[in-house]
Amino acid sequence: MLKSSGLAVILSCLLLSGSPAAADNFPTAPPASEGFSQERLAQIRTLLKKEIDADRMPGAVVMIARDGKLVYSEAVGFQDKAAGKPLGKDAIFRIYSMTKPFVSVVTMMLVEEGQLQLADPVTKYLPGFAEMKVLVTDKDGNSSIEAARRPITIQDLLRHTAGYDYGESTTLPEIKAAYAETGLYRPDGILYDSRGETAEAKIAAFSKVPLAYQPGTNWKYSKATDLLGRILEKVTGKRLGDLLAERLFRPLNMPDTGYFVPAGNQRRIAEALPVNPLTGGPNDRLYDVTAPPANDPGDSGAVSTAADYLRFCQMLLNDGELDGKRYLSPTTIRLMTSDQLGNRTTLPQEPGELLMGVQGYTFGLGFMVRRGPGIASVPGTEGEYLWGGAGGTFFWVEPKSRLAVVVMAQTPGPIRQYYRRLFKQVIEQAIVAQ
């Protein structure tokens, strides 16, 4: 049993009750003092207005910190364009897979405390995963099932080498059918929304579906972090939302981050355009965040603001410390942001191809990591780490440039890759001194 499942509701209400914005705790600095060109930064607004005027995006909040100082903070466009409601810096966004870094960081906190080890098999915490099956397809396209050659580990879940997939995006019809049958994917539901199942039902589903690859052999972005969240609940006896609030959201002063938005703050929820700018059809529906979920997904489901998420990023950039409180050791941050794939395959897409449509990136423990200064078709530096969400949100942390960037927008669908490249380009080009 999880301790006080109702506590998640109480904590979320406290976190989202209108306490001071997290950005208020950031010292500010003139862009020029931190190596930015004010004139070049102005291109961010120009490009955003162009996209908004063309009905390709509703708006965005962009925050940039360098050396721990806020050098750019702006909201452009609409919180709800259909309603004509302007966007504020305090807008609350559905962050989808930007939930995963929270879970990854808390996992590593428990590793540091000896409550977990990366080499631990999932079966240590969930015995029902002892006989996992793997879908195998031969060169002629014939499929069969074989036994997993080794157990899934905590490390596999963090780096997405467990063999899991997403029913929404898999290229394997057998996997899609299995995810639909067990409830891990709902073909007629909201994409990437698994907030309606109980935690125990999800554990049972994860133990039943076949893996798409043998554990440890291939990088495939997946729901693995959701299963990791269930393990954290088993280890700590706490609901995941409570655990994240206790270990991250409250101490980091992230007042608007949680798994739902209480009534008093729902006027701040950002919405996507009703029409998909690429197809002309209806845009993907975003999940409902106006009521507490049945479970707190580890891979998605959270809400946040640009200011809140920037504090999380700054803590990472500071090697695990912020405002005099240490969350992780520098050695753990280095481990998380190192190449964890080695020579493993990355089928059907490399991490960078999935996130931004570019090459040159590997994956660490919860983040995509840049291999070197070249190869990628966007600017950046070796060792930067980043990720985004299906709703259109995006962040990156760049240690060599001492930079933390958060972009919050609700631009679901394939167009989000284009915007990630655009923001990477326009923000990096504004740096004129290292």
Question: Your description of this structure?
Answer:
The protein folds into 2 domains: 7-104 and 239-428, Beta-lactamase; 121-236, Methane Monooxygenase Hydroxylase, Chain G, domain 1 (Up-down Bundle), CATH 1.20.58.710. Residues 3-20 have low confidence and may be disordered. β5 and β6 (143-147) form a beta hairpin. It is 29% helix and 14% strand. The protein is α+β, with helices and mostly antiparallel strands and 434 residues long. The radius of gyration is 21 Å and the shape is globular. α1 (7-15) runs parallel beside α8 and α3 (100-112) crosses α7 (224-236). The chain contains 12 helices and 14 strands.
Let me know the CATH homologous superfamily of the largest domain: DD-peptidase/beta-lactamase superfamily
Major beta sheet, specifics? 8 strands, antiparallel
CATH topology call of the largest domain: Beta-lactamase
Provide the spatial order of strands within the biggest beta sheet: 3-2-1-14-13-12-11-10
Element string (H = helix, E = strand): HHEEEEHEEHHHHHEHEEHHEEEEEH
Query: Using DSSP, what is the number of strands?
Result: 14
- Low-pLDDT sequence parts: 3-20
- Give the averaged pLDDT, no decimals: 93
Helix coverage percent: 25-40%
| Integer tally of domains | 2
Q: Termini, distance in Å?
A: 52 Å
- Measured by DSSP, the beta-strand proportion falls in 5-15%
Structural class: alpha+beta
What is the CATH-assigned architecture of the largest domain? 3-Layer(aba) Sandwich
What's the shape?
Answer: globular
Number of contiguous helices: 12
